[in-house]
Design goal:
It contains 4 helices and 16 strands. By secondary structure, the protein is mostly beta strands. Strands 1, 2, 3, 4, 5, 6, 10, 11, 12, 13, 15 and 16 form a 12-stranded mixed β-sheet that branches. Strands 7-8-9-14 form a 4-stranded antiparallel β-sheet, with no helix packed on it. The longest helix is centred in the middle third of the chain and has 11 residues. The termini are far apart.
Length: 248
């Protein structure tokens, strides 16, 4: 293989059979269960990297069911997003994500810097209750419940949340183990079609785990819950801060 061919085809690993295809990445019937809860402000400040700023002691715990996603297949993920501000722009810092499918783990980490790890999240309906569970191996680390479609949610508020930017900390090590890339990345979701949105009573429990430490941001009070279904496009990101740039 010629050097020019290597450069032309080097968009993902492995070169001979990339773990994921080139974007854009479109999601159809993407289903969310998002529970917003109040937590400890000091715990938030300990995990949110500068120059992001924590705006209030809230966390959004998410279960996302993705039955139809370009190149990634059918999978589910679960994790925590923290409301933050970056130079006056409000958005969400993606703190932790756990999912059950290799291509989006590889693509999410390599392209954007999503903090993805392999686990077993499930989002399903049990009689009259929407239920999300997250197991790390055989150990239960999170469980969320919500009354199924009790009332219509504010579509404008849901769409505004989906239009807001999200931030990621992308880390790629050098061959000697030192950081070669350490960047704050911003991305958006676009071309959103909201197919339905609901709210209702909800609960959330998080359990301590050494390697899936979602409980390090403890649940003090559930503030709200939302269940919605969308079609959307996950756009590629832009670097907004380079931690390795001495002039940053």
């Amino acid at each position: 293989m010629k050097i020019a061919d290597v450069k032309a085809n080097a968009f993902a690993m492995p070169l001979s059979s990339p773990a994921f295809p080139r974007g854009p990445y479109r999601f159809v019937n993407r289903e969310f269960l998002v529970i917003t809860y109040r937590t400890d402000m000091d715990a938030l400040r300990a995990v949110v990297p500068e120059p992001l700023e924590v705006t209030e002691p809230l966390v959004k715990y998410e279960f996302i069911r993705m039955p139809d996603s370009t190149g990634f297949g059918d999978y589910t993920e679960s994790g925590q997003v923290i409301p933050v501000s970056f130079r006056g722009q409000h958005g969400g810092y993606v703190h932790a994500m756990y999912l059950n499918d290799h291509p989006p783990i590889a693509g999410g980490r390599e392209l954007w810097g999503f903090p993805k790890k392999l686990a077993t999240p499930v989002l399903d309906t049990e009689i009259d209750t929407l239920v999300g569970t997250l197991d790390y191996g055989k150990v239960r680390v999170a469980k969320a419940t919500m009354g199924f479609k009790h009332s219509e949610a504010d579509h404008a508020a849901i769409l505004a949340g989906l239009a807001a930017p999200n931030f990621l900390l992308k880390i790629i090590p050098h061959v000697d183990g030192t950081p070669r890339i350490c960047e704050l990345v911003r991305y958006f979701t676009t071309n959103v079609t909201l197919k339905g949105a609901w709210t209702g009573p909800a609960s959330l429990e998080l359990h301590p785990h050494a390697l899936a430490p979602v409980a390090d941001l403890p649940v003090l009070k559930v503030e709200s819950a939302a269940h919605y279904i969308t079609d959307l496009t996950l756009d590629l990101g832009t670097v907004v801060y380079d931690y390795l740039d001495e002039n940053a």
